[in-house]
Amino acid sequence: MSSGVKAGLVSADVLRREQQELRRHERNNKHLEEESRHSETVFRDKSGRKRDLAQERLEQQQKAEAKSERDEQYAKWGKGLAQGRQQQQNVEDAIKEMQKPLARYIDDQDLDRMLREQEREGDPMAEFIKKRKAKENKEKKEKPRYNGPAPPLNRFNIWPGHRWDGVDRSNGFEQQRFARIANKKAVQELAYKWSVEDM
C-alpha cells in the first residue's frame, strides 16, 4: 500500500513489525522535520538563482517613491505655473486680509485703493480715467518691436525690426560661426574631462 504496510490478510506478528518499523522511520526523520519547520522558504528565479526578496521589495519601494515624486511634479506642471503663482498670491492676499481688524475705518488706505480701482457700470468718470491712462502710456513713445517666433541668433545680438516677416535670408555664415564655437567649446570640455579623469 502507499503507507508502506502490506495489503490483504496479514498476521499480527507482521503487523506489529511493520508498525515498529514505521515508528522507527518517523523517529529517524523527526530531526529533519524540526529543521524544516524553522527554515525559510528559498525562492528562485527561472535560471535557478536565489532571489533576495528584501532587496527586491526595497527596489520596488524606491521605484514607487520616484514615480510618485515624478507624478507630483507633473501634476504641479500640468496645473500651470502662472495659475500656481496666482493661487499663491490669492492665499497671501487672504492671509493679509485676515490679519486686518474686522472693523475698517474711513482712513484705511487698502480699502480706499481697492474701491477706487473697481470699475462700476454707469460711472461717468470711468471713460475719462481710461483715456487719461491710455494717454500716459502713449506718451512713453516706445518704438515698435518684433514679436514673432524667436529669430536666429547673430554675433551682434541685434533683434530684427518690427516689420520682419520671419524668413532667414542669410548665407548661413552666422550658423556656421556658432557651430564652430560650440564645437570648440565641446572639444575643450572633453579634453579637460579626459585630463582630470584619473585624479
Automatic annotation (TrEMBL):
<dbReference type="GO" id="GO:0070274">
    <property type="term" value="C:RES complex"/>
</dbReference>
<feature type="region of interest" description="Disordered">
    <location>
        <begin position="1"/>
        <end position="96"/>
    </location>
</feature>
<feature type="region of interest" description="Disordered">
    <location>
        <begin position="115"/>
        <end position="158"/>
    </location>
</feature>
<dbReference type="InterPro" id="IPR018609">
    <property type="entry name" value="Bud13"/>
</dbReference>
<feature type="compositionally biased region" description="Basic and acidic residues">
    <location>
        <begin position="14"/>
        <end position="74"/>
    </location>
</feature>
<feature type="compositionally biased region" description="Basic and acidic residues">
    <location>
        <begin position="136"/>
        <end position="145"/>
    </location>
</feature>
<comment type="similarity">
    <text>Belongs to the CWC26 family.</text>
</comment>
<dbReference type="GO" id="GO:0003723">
    <property type="term" value="F:RNA binding"/>
</dbReference>
<dbReference type="GO" id="GO:0000398">
    <property type="term" value="P:mRNA splicing, via spliceosome"/>
</dbReference>
<dbReference type="Pfam" id="PF09736">
    <property type="entry name" value="Bud13"/>
</dbReference>
<protein>
    <recommendedName>
        <fullName>BUD13 homolog</fullName>
    </recommendedName>
</protein>
<dbReference type="GO" id="GO:0005684">
    <property type="term" value="C:U2-type spliceosomal complex"/>
</dbReference>
<dbReference type="InterPro" id="IPR051112">
    <property type="entry name" value="CWC26_splicing_factor"/>
</dbReference>
